[in-house]
């Protein structure tokens, strides 16, 4: 019996050890390997000076995450022209003070923000395999699933009040402006499409012609929102939500996006075309995870510094 089953048992033990090492790496190392990504986007009118935009997304703060807080604080040293926060700051009802501590130095700069579903509601324990099943069935968030019942409500109002007090512009289904020394910028924002809080009809009409440049901002990059922004003539859309796939396969990429966006555009800079119009789309992979799945694999946490340059 030993001779017959010895090799399979060794293989099983090896696979188990490899899986355990992978989980340990994904949770203990990669999920804390914060990166700054730099992207250049040629969208500004000719003759306009470059703008440096720091996009922060999907922090999913949990009390006690000191390394993440210190890293976010250090980003103020980049001296961006302005900050765009694309939501999901929370993964803990007690973490608002720690989010504000982490973002405090960045709140000294001009900024705009939208919220995501995890700002409003606490996360729930889910089997990660359900994301694959929902992808196959075409169900994403409340867009294809029953409404959430018994959800934990996060103190998002405290975040809103602090952001507003710092001068950051709330883009919840509305438009806003930032007046910078070198330009006046306009923004059109949506509440989170993942939980059907987006109301594009309230902001329709296209870019602000009186501003030097206008961009669209939304948490979850659902196609209906991207289609609306692009059809209306926005040249740049910023979003988050996807976590870049979070658990990716090396040399292949993401399996899911947790929305109806295709996996080829799960993170980074791409384009979105509707008819004869095309927009640049930047999707941040975010710098956190749901507290119940604190792992990342082949998809390190990130914040992006986008340099907007003039069109050729």
Explain what you see.
- This protein has 312 residues and is α/β, with parallel strands linked by helices.
- Helix content is 24%, strand content 22%.
- It has 7 helices and 12 strands.
- The chain has helices at 2-28, 66-74, 96-103, 117-120, 129-137, 156-165, 223-231; strands at 35-44, 51-56, 82-85, 111-113, 169-170, 174-179, 184-189, 213-217, 236-239, 268-274, 277-283, 302-310.
- The strands form 2 sheets. The chain has a 6-stranded mixed β-sheet with strand order 1-12-2-3-4-5, covered by helices on one side. Strands 6-7-8-9-11-10 form a 6-stranded mixed β-sheet.
- The radius of gyration is 20 Å and the shape is globular.
- The model is unreliable at 1-5 and 10-21 (pLDDT under 50).
Q: What sequence of helices (H) and strands (E) makes up the elements?
A: HEEHEHEHHHEEEEHEEEE
Q: What's the main sheet like?
A: 6 strands, mixed
How do the strands of the widest beta sheet line up side by side? 1-12-2-3-4-5
Number of helices, counting only DSSP H or I runs of 4 residues or more: 7
Given as residue ranges, the uncertain stretches (5+ residues, pLDDT < 50) are 1-5, 10-21
Q: Per the principal axes of the C-alpha atoms, what is the gross shape? A: globular
End-to-end C-alpha gap: 73 Å
Mean pLDDT: 91
Question: What's the count of strands?
Answer: 12
Please state the structural category. alpha/beta
Helix percent reads 10-25%
Strand content: 15-25%
Rg: 20 Å
């Amino acid at each position: 019996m030993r001779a017959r089953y010895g090799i399979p048992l060794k293989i099983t033990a090896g696979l188990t050890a490899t899986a355990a090492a992978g989980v340990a790496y994904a949770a203990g190392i990669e999920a804390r390997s914060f990166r700054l990504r730099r992207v250049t986007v040629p969208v500004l009118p000719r003759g306009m000076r470059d703008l440096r935009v720091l996009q922060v997304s999907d922090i999913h703060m949990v009390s006690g995450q000191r390394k993440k807080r210190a890293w976010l604080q250090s980003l103020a040293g980049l001296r961006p022209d302005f900050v765009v926060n694309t939501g999901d700051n929370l993964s803990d009802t007690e973490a608002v003070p720690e989010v504000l501590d982490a973002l405090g130095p960045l709140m000294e700069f001009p900024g705009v923000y939208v919220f995501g579903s995890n700002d409003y509601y606490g996360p729930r324990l889910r089997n990660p395999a359900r994301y694959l099943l929902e992808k196959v069935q075409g169900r994403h968030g409340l867009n294809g699933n029953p409404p959430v019942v018994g959800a934990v409500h996060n103190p998002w109002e405290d975040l809103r009040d602090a952001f507003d007090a710092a001068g950051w512009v709330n883009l919840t289904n509305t438009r806003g402006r930032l007046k910078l020394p070198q330009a006046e910028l306009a923004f059109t924002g949506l509440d989170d499409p993942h939980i059907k809080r987006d109301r594009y009809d309230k902001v329709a009409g296209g870019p602000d012609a009186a501003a030097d440049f206008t961009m669209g901002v939304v948490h979850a990059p659902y196609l209906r929102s991207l289609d609306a922004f692009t059809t209306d003539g926005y040249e740049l859309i910023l979003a988050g939500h996807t976590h870049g796939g979070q658990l990716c396969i090396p040399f292949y990429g993401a399996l899911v996006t947790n929305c109806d966006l295709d996996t080829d555009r799960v993170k980074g800079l791409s384009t979105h075309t509707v008819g004869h119009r095309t927009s640049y789309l930047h999707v941040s992979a975010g710098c956190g995870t749901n507290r119940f799945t604190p792992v990342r694999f082949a998809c390190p946490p990130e914040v992006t510094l986008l340099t907007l340059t003039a069109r050729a």
